[in-house]
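How it folds:
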Amino acid sequence: MATDREILNGALGALAIGAAGALLCGRTKPTRRKRQPPPRSAMERARREAERPPQAPTVKAARRLNRAAGLIALSTLLDSAVEHYRGSFHNKAMYTPLVVSALTLYVSYHGTGDRRPAVHRFRDFTYLVSAATGFVGTAFHIFNIRKRPGGFSWQNLFYGSPLGAPASIALAGLLGFYSERLRDNELKRSPKVFGLRAGRALAALAGIGMVATSAEAALLHFRGAYHDPFMYAPVVVPPIAAALLGDTALSHPRPPRRLTRWWLRLTALVGFAGAGFHIFGVSRNMGGWRNWRQNVLNGPPIPAPPSFTGLALAGLAALGLLDDHPDS
């Protein structure tokens, strides 16, 4: 049986692979055929930017989706590392979400800097694997809860395998896979994905993801008895953003409402603020950060809230695409 040190080294190794991959990917610049010296003045930078060919709206939306998928993948990577380390990685399959999330983060970083209007096969395949991993992981977590004494009881839902954690991997994969489909629509006047209008479908997908993530937060904050009024924020703000995105998806071609854009920005802020509140929650446990090894494992999950930020970025990408392509 592996020791704690071996388990921790394995988890850190998976994180190192993802970080090294992101660094390597960040060094590749597929859009530049010839390396040029850096501009020496602001005027020269402005001239080069003006000479750069215009970016297709679908590619711009795809790059925004890559950012959203990457942020969700990073949140999932760190959260899975903590939760599965707490479970001592007793099942070797528990390393899978770490590796898949790290690869998803890698390809998302690559896609963010890619201006080409073409599907990247490795990114496409990785996103598909990420989505499949999320669905399989959700099935495993449902099975683990079901086999516990009492089955689907409140006790097991509170303290058993979290159902929403593997679903976030699926969300990152779906958003990334969607971004690759968008890149295929550069020359089309009305971009579509799987026969659906791309802007409306993306707004609906981001809204569904927000509702699912908010449901997980509602369950865990209910376990905490909502002892802090701020614990209602991830239960109230994201569902309203989801409703506004649903209205956008159903009521277009009417221009997106300004309220929808600002509410998505508020949702993004809730995601970052939630991580700060969870850091504070860890510090309130006995021993505070001096006893970080125990309190990080047993306190509120610090990496989880930024998933709301990633979904808000996906919603903003949908609004941007609808601004550029009102018929989408």
About this structure: Residues 83 and 118 are 37 Å apart (CA to CA). The chain has one domain: 4-22+56-324.
